[in-house]
Design goal:
Layout: H1 11-22, E1 29-33, H2 40-52, H3 66-72, E2 79-82, E3 85-86, H4 94-113, E4 125-126, H5 129-140, E5 149-153, H6 167-177, E6 183-189, H7 197-201, E7 204-207, H8 213-223, H9 228-238, H10 242-246, H11 257-273, H12 278-286, H13 295-313, H14 326-336, H15 342-358, H16 363-378, H17 381-384
Parallel strand pairs: 1-6, 1-7, 2-5, 5-6
Antiparallel strand pairs: 3-4
Helix pairs in contact: 1-2, 2-3, 4-5, 5-6, 8-9, 11-12, 11-13, 11-16, 12-16, 13-14, 13-15, 15-16
Bound molecules: zinc ion (ZN).
């Protein structure tokens, strides 16, 4: 039987949850928040297991009873794990809930087989109204084993991303307000600021902190086949989140999914630093004219590179995150004559681009607009200064 890997880290959160459970109960609606990939869904599953355990102790669930075994295999009939899914094509109305439920079961089978997946955040997915209808229907039924029933709603900020009415959120709100019987909810979110305020105010927040790099590296060494150097570097880029670090491990002969995005983001920043406009146009045209939500992650990496640009321009090399490519970045930054304060405006432009991507504007327009704004922020003196001979007029000015 498949069994989830042990929870790594979050000891303090686990102890306080175990204590709360022993002293009369965990709040009926909780919100686990923290960096993407830090282990929120694994912690939600652990908490559900605690609530379904026959003999929980001060450290948490016993791990040996029937409830624990079923929960660890993600097969407990009273543990309901929901996560964002792509919208089924060509289905609407009442049939949407059924189609989504059947897709969820398919993905659950996958997740049981491969519980360790990179957390990349997929803005093309959503928690649609149909999902909330299914949750309501299940919540009204009696728990199969007679104890609690626990609903996990992962990436809860992706509720209703493509629907103009707040119906799904409101239906969920009613459940959170008055959970029927022994129903419990655990929401997770890496962007709690994007949750509806009404949902946020009805759930008790618990922040899950980053893990030390060493623990992420140890975990990767135990659970993957990557060599030590690779796991250590992936842990550094993972910034304390195992799910993120997994995205930097090679996937067969291919670079990991996040490694690919990281490189693409660097190209974009380099195009903005380059003397001519041609590289920027070429990059913009590489994108398809639709599906902008795919770009949200890419722009997250652009922001990371811009922070590195700022550190390099200020000479603070110890603060650079993407250290493997620092020499390449430094030569671009020096050639463009970037000054430390320039990155602030560039960061704002990247944030704006991320919001436009969420709003599903044409990707080619977003990318070309972003490169233009980044150029404006990072190479502003090119136009304004009548450059005297000196260091600032070096390069292609
Ligand atoms: Zn147990």
């Amino acid at each position: 039987m498949i069994r989830l890997h042990d929870v790594e880290g979050h000891e303090r959160a686990r102890r306080s949850l175990a204590r709360a459970h022993g002293e009369g109960g965990i709040p009926a609606a909780m919100l686990f928040h923290g960096l993407r990939g830090v282990g929120k869904q694994r912690m939600a599953l652990w908490t559900a297991q605690l609530q379904l355990c026959d003999d929980p102790g001060p450290e948490g669930p016993c791990g040996a009873c029937r409830g624990c075994k079923l929960a660890l295999g993600v097969e407990h009939p009273d543990l309901h794990w929901f996560f964002p899914l792509p919208r089924p094509k060509g289905v609407s109305g009442d049939r949407l809930a059924d189609a989504l439920e059947s897709d969820r079961i398919d993905e659950l089978i996958q997740r049981r087989k491969e519980p360790l997946r990179p957390s990349v955040g997929d803005e093309l997915r959503g928690l649609y109204l149909g999902v909330v209808q299914t949750i309501r229907r299940k919540a009204r039924m009696q728990p199969t084993l007679g104890g609690d029933q626990v609903f996990i709603l992962a990436d809860a900020e992706l509720m209703v991303p493509q629907e103009s009415s707040p119906e799904a959120a409101n239906a969920l709100l009613k459940l959170l307000e008055e959970p029927p019987g022994r129903t419990r909810f655990i929401l997770t979110s890496s962007e709690p600021g994007r949750l509806l305020p009404t949902i946020r105010s009805r759930s008790v927040p618990l922040h899950l902190a980053r893990l030390p790099d060493r623990r992420v590296a140890d975990f990767l060494a135990r659970h993957t086949e990557a060599d030590e150097e690779t796991t250590r570097w992936a842990a550094t880029l993972g910034q304390g989140a195992i799910g993120r670090a997994l995205g930097f491990l090679p996937d067969g002969d291919e670079p990991g999914i996040l490694e690919g995005e990281r490189r693409k983001a660097l190209e974009l920043v380099e195009a903005a630093l380059a003397p001519g406009r041609a590289p920027g146009y070429a990059l913009a045209l590489d994108h398809s004219p639709a599906g902008a939500r795919k770009l949200v992650n890419l722009f997250g990496f652009v922001e990371e590179w811009l922070r590195d640009v700022s550190a390099v321009a200020a000479g603070a090399h110890d603060q650079v995150l993407h250290r493997d490519l620092v020499d390449r970045l430094r030569s671009r930054v020096e050639a463009a004559g970037v000054e430390p304060g320039d990155a602030a405006g560039a960061l704002l432009a990247a944030e704006e681009a991320r919001e436009l991507a969420r709003g599903n504007v044409n990707p080619q327009l977003i990318v070309s607009g972003l490169i233009r704004d980044l150029r404006g922020a990072l190479r502003p003196r090119r136009v304004a200064t009548i450059a005297p001979a000196g260091p600032a007029s070096r390069g292609e000015r």
